[in-house]
Amino acid sequence: MALKAEMFQRTGAYKIRGALNKLRLLSDDQKRRGVICSSAGNHAQGVALAAAINGVRAVVVMAENATASKIEATRGYGAQVILHGTIWDEANEEALRLVAEQGLSYVHPFDDPELIAGQATVGLEIVDQVPDADVVVVPIGGGGLISGVAQAVKQRSPRTRVVGVESSGAPGMRDSVKAGHVVTLDRVECVIDGLRVRRVGELTREIVERCVDDIVTLPDTEIFDSVVWLMSRQKLVTEGAAAATVAAVRKGLVKATPGARVVCVLSGGNLSLDQLSGLTWN
Fold it and tell me: Are residues 75 and 170 in the same domain?
């Protein structure tokens, strides 16, 4: 099993890739007026840093229960942080209201073609670094990362299977693909912020349906077991969403022939000390 360790990116997650690409393509007038996004934390930091690099004002709306370390880090990159709601969807509603009120350019956390193109660089690097990869396993929140990775991998290595992983308490993409349209989950029973989404993207669902071979789900508790496993066995600190890929492989949910080369995308490493102290150590 090979690990694509995105926790070593600046801001601690892959999100900086899409944010940099999105801001690079803004007009001068859009940059002058500033940008806004909603996020559980990693997208917030990516947009905040990308905005700082480009000299652009950034406003970030985060859920009130967002990880304190991610809120602090986002402010540290120079963004104005507004706390609203308890899940991403509620924070996003407030961000869209502020778009109309302040004339800011909205940077969607996952359902944006320019953002997805930035995330696709993860897939391009995987094919370059592991050209014999048989399976690539990617976590799914709203679907931006897997949409980019799947398109890139399938374009460069069509034989490689792409498998998505969701929390069984928030299987929005799995249910949407099965339904043939985006569905809004009645409730979300997931504490992992990178996977806790009630409604996935319209564009991301379409891409996943076309390019992803399988979607598997497993409980948060099993995902957190792999957070501990990665720390103890691989000496890598990952957040829950990142460890979901390894958890799916360890639990036998990812179909692969014996000896197959499997690549797991570790999407980020922004695990708070509070979350860390709450894990069960084996």
Answer: no
**Count of positions (residues) in the chain:** 282
Let me know: does 165 contact 217? Beta carbons within 8 Å: yes
Beta bridge partners of 282: none
Mean pLDDT by runs of 10 across the 282 residues of the chain is 96 96 96 92 92 96 85 93 87 93 94 97 98 98 97 98 98 98 95 89 98 98 95 95 98 94 96 63 44
**CATH code at position 59:** 3.40.50.1100
The tally of CA atoms less than 13 A away on the side-chain side of residue 69 is: 13
The residues, ordered by sequence, that sit 6+ positions from 168 with a Cβ below 8 Å of its Cβ are 217, 218, 219
Task: Tell me, yes or no, whether 57 and 195 share the same domain.
Answer: no
Q: Which residue has the tokens 């809004």?
A: 184
SS3 25: coil
Cα separation, 253 vs 44, whole angstroms: 31
Q: How far is CA 260 from the centre of its chain?
A: 25
What are phi and psi for residue 164, nearest 5 degrees? Answer: -100, 150
DSSP calls for 74-103: HHHTT-EEEE-SSSHHHHHHHHHHHHHHH-
pTM for the whole structure = 0.92
- Identify the CA nearest to 164 among candidates 149, 146, 151, 182: 146
Same domain flag for 170 and 213: yes
Q: Which residues have a catalytic role annotated?
A: 15, 267
CB 15, CB 60: distance < 8 Å: no
